[in-house]
Amino acid sequence: MKICSLLSSSSSEGGGPVMSGKAWWFIHAVAATAVAAGAHAVIRRHRSGLRGRVVGIIPARFASSRFQGKPLVEILGKPMIQRTWERAKLATTLDHVVVATDDEKIAECCRGFGADVVMTSESCRNGTERCNEALQKLEKKYDIVVNIQGDEPLIEPEIIDGVVKALQRAPDAVFSTAVTSLKPEDGFDPNRVKCVVDNRGYAIYFSRGLIPYNKSGKVNPNFPYMLHLGIQSYTTKFLKIYPELPPSPLQLEEDLEQLKVLENGYKMKFFKCLKRLECFQVLQDGKSGCVDFKYSRLDWLFVRQLIENGVEFQGGGTQDGQVIKVDHEAHGVDIPEDVAKIESLMRERNIY
């Protein structure tokens, strides 16, 4: 129904149309709805701490003891750094995506496929420091920075969005990251970083050992152990001080940099998903054939049992995301020959 049709055809003394009672209530309702929507937007911005502008930074370096020149290795005809950049661009929460590098070959390559590049110094000790330096050189101001590993050409955009939204919804947190399910057979693998979370979704601890650890000394196949995924996001204020925090005893003992965040009393929010990243650096499985899904308030074991019994979950409104059935394969590439694994996976998924 058009608003103009609600106006009476009769005229007032001034010759203008006369508004009927129905029209008055209709327009009043529309105005009230608009005001309410605006108020909710303000409330959402307030709750997120006004963390509205988000930049994704992909740190990339040429020198690597495990795989020199890895960002430039071709995967089905495209450099790996381009694959990662294209996936990151699919994330809906990112206002801007840039590559941060100290290498001219990488920079030239990235500019060639349309990426914005920030040159950083060779003295950066890790990706976090490179992200911080790149942030200082950007003209625009941002509230959140997402550190996207350059060796993840199949990174899920939903996971990027998940860690951003987790940080936006937790004004008392300065850092967010993602966790997923840990397969029982990986329980004692020190390359699989495990983590425990409180009932509000905040990090309690990370370890290369199995946590929690029971008295039997064995993996409990019925317990939902969690695996840490490497993606991280920070508030810009925290990123400026994060590299300057001195190494902490727990960090040094576990060789996990994120522990100094917790050890210094800062809060870290988890995005809970059960959808892995195919990472060139960390995951070293062959075919796993297991089923993972995102979850929030639903009971983890109950939902897993339903999936194993053939129940299909096509999405559902939970606070932290949807419940999604995912068949995944995890691959690790530490040497050039391993590139063939990821290419085979991409062909199977029709990703070109």
UniProtKB/TrEMBL annotation:
Q: What is the annotated localization of this protein?
A: Membrane
Swiss-Prot/TrEMBL catalytic activity: 3-deoxy-alpha-D-manno-oct-2-ulosonate + CTP = CMP-3-deoxy-beta-D-manno-octulosonate + diphosphate
Which Pfam families does the UniProt record give?
Answer: CTP_transf_3
- Membrane-spanning intervals of the chain: 24-43
Sorted alphabetically, which keywords does the UniProt record give?
A: Membrane, Nucleotidyltransferase, Transferase, Transmembrane, Transmembrane helix
Q: Which GO terms describe its molecular function?
A: 3-deoxy-manno-octulosonate cytidylyltransferase activity
Q: Which GO terms describe its cellular component?
A: cytosol; membrane
The reply on keyword Glycoprotein is no
Pathway assignment = Nucleotide-sugar biosynthesis; CMP-3-deoxy-D-manno-octulosonate biosynthesis; CMP-3-deoxy-D-manno-octulosonate from 3-deoxy-D-manno-octulosonate and CTP: step 1/1
The alphabetized list of GO BP terms reads: carbohydrate derivative biosynthetic process; small molecule metabolic process
The record's EC number reads 2.7.7.38
Q: What class of enzyme is it?
A: transferase
Protein family: Belongs to the KdsB family.
Q: What NCBIfam families does this protein's entry cite?
A: kdsB, PRK05450.1-3, PRK05450.1-5
- What is the protein named? 3-deoxy-manno-octulosonate cytidylyltransferase
Organism of provenance? Acorus calamus (Sweet flag)
